[in-house]
Design brief:
1 helix; single chain; 36% strand; three-stranded antiparallel sheet; globular; 158 residues; 2 domains; Metal Binding Protein, Guanine Nucleotide Exchange Factor, Chain A; mainly beta
Length: 158
């Protein structure tokens, strides 16, 4: 079993590598693209996430089949890669008091930042405030460069 906080990785059957945190096995990759072409699979997994200093910790259950890149003035400056999940697939592990909230324009979107290190781990998006937009760059053991990007045009919202 892996030590707490250590990522373990073993190769499973059918070309699927398995990795996990805190002893929990999670499917991470599939070789659907042929030999040497590794991509993220479309299986539901539990991911652990945190800000830089670790004061904000959370978990999500998600299929990381894509990330969203928004071109609005705010998202373009912060550079996050976002994947949306419904509230039942998001678990806050830290106290909400560790976060600062930023709102602007219509104040529909709720952008949360760690009070200590300033990292943006998640938000409630303006176009879908019932969902959580997770900054995939805050998830442990995720190669964000291997996930397909969906470009969205928040700059077109008034």
């Amino acid at each position: 079993m892996a030590q707490p906080g250590r990522l373990r990785s073993t190769v499973g059957t059918a070309g699927v590598a398995r990795g996990g945190l805190h002893g929990h096995a999670v499917d991470r990759w599939s070789s659907r693209g042929g030999e040497g072409a590794w991509t993220y699979g479309s299986h539901m997994r539990t991911y652990s996430g945190s800000c830089h200093c670790g004061r904000v910790r959370f978990e999500i259950d998600a299929e990381l089949d894509h990330v969203r890149v928004c071109d609005c003035s705010f998202c373009a400056k912060r550079g996050a890669l976002v994947h949306r999940v419904p509230p039942e697939r998001f678990r806050m592990l830290s106290e909400w008091s560790e976060l600062s909230l930023y709102e602007w324009n219509t104040k529909t979107a709720k952008h949360y930042f760690c009070k200590t290190c300033g990292v943006f781990p998640f938000h409630r998006p303006r176009t879908a405030p019932e969902l959580w937009g997770i900054n995939v760059r805050c998830l442990e053991g995720v190669d964000a460069s291997a996930i397909p990007i969906k470009y969205v045009h928040g700059s077109r919202l008034s």
